[in-house]
Design goal:
This protein is mostly helical. The protein has 2 domains: 106 residues, Serine Threonine Protein Phosphatase 5, Tetratricopeptide repeat (Alpha Horseshoe), CATH 1.25.40.10; 69 residues, Alpha Horseshoe (Serine Threonine Protein Phosphatase 5, Tetratricopeptide repeat), CATH 1.25.40.10. Helix content is 71%, strand content 0%. The protein is built from 10 helices and no strands. Helix 3 runs antiparallel to helix 4 and helix 8 packs across helix 9. The radius of gyration is 19 Å and the shape is elongated.
């Protein structure tokens, strides 16, 4: 027998049958209330985007938070973004950094990239070019083009890393590929 989450995922993912986001939301809610992190995250996405439910960023933050506390990297990233932007929660750069860091430690590339920007700009943390470069490198090594470009610039300018024209050139080429 398929669980509520599986049925909801199938309902949301079928491309040959018209999607019913409201039905998926009801099924996600049942699974989310039982503590299923993936369902909690998906319910957050539905409230974030207004698909199948009225758009409510505060409720989205609540569901992202429940999933994030269970360690779901995508939820941690989305929660960090909500805090960074002040969407559905008070703008809080320190909370954004906290959640970006948790997801970044799970190799979530967008969190690594955003964390590098937070360190580079001193948002929610003390400005630290070395940490910015370290997180940027992790995202760049996973193929994130903006991170590759930023890392190239860091090597070109000697920000957080030793100035190195060859390394800069290597990362500029990867970013352009």
């Amino acid at each position: 027998m398929l669980g509520a989450l599986t049925v909801a995922l199938i309902q949301a993912a079928k491309s040959t049958v018209p999607r019913d986001p409201a039905k998926a939301a009801r099924r996600f809610l049942k699974a989310a209330q039982k503590g299923n992190a993936t369902a909690q995250f998906n319910l957050g996405v539905l409230y974030d985007t207004g698909r199948g439910v009225p758009r409510d960023l505060t409720i989205a933050v609540t569901w992202y938070g429940k999933a994030a506390h269970q360690g779901l990297a995508e939820a941690q990233f989305n929660l960090a973004q909500m805090y960074r932007l002040g969407d559905g929660a008070e703008r809080d750069a320190a909370q954004a950094v906290k959640w970006f860091l948790k997801a970044a430690k799970q190799n979530h590339v967008l969190s690594q990239f955003n964390l590098s920007l937070m360190y580079e700009q001193g948002l929610g943390v003390d400005k630290d070019e070395t940490k910015a470069a370290n997180w940027c490198r992790k995202a760049a090594e996973q193929g994130h083009a903006d991170a590759q470009y930023n890392l190239a610039q860091m090597y070109r300018l000697g920000q957080g890393v030793p100035r190195d024209a060859a390394e800069a050139s290597k990362w500029f080429r990867r970013a352009a590929a």
